[in-house]
Amino acid sequence: MTYQDLQLIAPTAKLAVSDKGITFDEFDADYKEGRIQLEGRISPSDVQLKQLRMSGIKWLENTSELVSSLHQAAQSLNTLSIDELDVNNGQIIQIERKPYWQLSGVNIEGGQLSLIKDGKAGFFNGHLEVTANNASLDQLLTTQAMIRASSQQGDVRLERAFLPLPSGYIEANGKWDQTTLCAPWTFSLHGDGIPLEQAWIQWRLPFSLGGLAEIELDLSGLSGDYSM
């Protein structure tokens, strides 16, 4: 089954069509050397999935177009929710434009996710854990990286981000309480052994940098409105 650049191999589905959209009791297809399975309701303005599973998918070309297409698709949605998200051993590589980046061995576990609400994208509810065997941005490399975050009706918490580096690590946590009028936020980051020979850093500076850096960062503020 082909739609524009989207090609699904051997798709099977159990579905019902109504004025509210298409309700999938079961959908299964091979895609990008992997497999997609989902259950839920899809319409032009709303995507409400009970379950989304993706395993072994490798996106190795036209990655910039993928990011642009996902952005455009998100702008047309009023709601996007996923009760159970499971991504296993995914891979995505972007080498069309600098800075180049890649993620390999990506695993994602999420639940009760609300990612678009009233036409606005965000992390409004749910819990999420992302791990990657290997990841890179230009010359910045990490292995066995992990990010864990949660949100309760807009009270967003970055519980832990840990990125091991060849000669050190980056660790971060923070929170953003959007349930109150002033919307206070905090963010803390510690890094050791961060390589400075990064093209995306160098082109912004009138001088060159080399070596390894250590950083200790603690930020906080209010984001409710302009006066705050």
Kindly describe this structure:
There is one protein chain. The protein is mostly beta strands and 228 residues long. The strands form two sheets. Strands 3, 4, 5, 6, 7, 8, 9, 10, 11, 12, 13, 14 and 15 form a 13-stranded mixed sheet that branches. It has a two-stranded antiparallel sheet with strand order 1-2. β4 and β5 form a beta hairpin. The longest helix is centred in the N-terminal third of the chain and has 13 residues. It is globular. The relative contact order is 0.09.
SSE layout and pairing:
Blueprint (H helix, E strand, L loop, with lengths): L1 E2 L2 E2 L1 E10 L2 E11 L2 E9 L3 E10 L2 E2 L3 H13 L3 E16 L6 E17 L2 E18 L2 E13 L2 E11 L2 E10 L6 E12 L3 H4 L9 E11 L6
Parallel strand pairs: 6-8, 7-8
Antiparallel strand pairs: 1-2, 3-4, 4-5, 5-6, 8-9, 9-10, 10-11, 11-12, 12-13, 13-14, 14-15
Number of strands: 15
How would you characterize the largest beta sheet? 13 strands, mixed
Termini separation comes to 52 Å
Number of helices: 2
Counting helices, strands and paired strands, the structural category is: mainly beta
Descriptive tags:
13-stranded mixed sheet; two-stranded antiparallel sheet; 2 helices; 7% helix; mainly beta; 228 residues
Describe the structure concisely for a colleague.
With 228 residues, this protein is mainly beta. It contains two helices and 15 strands.
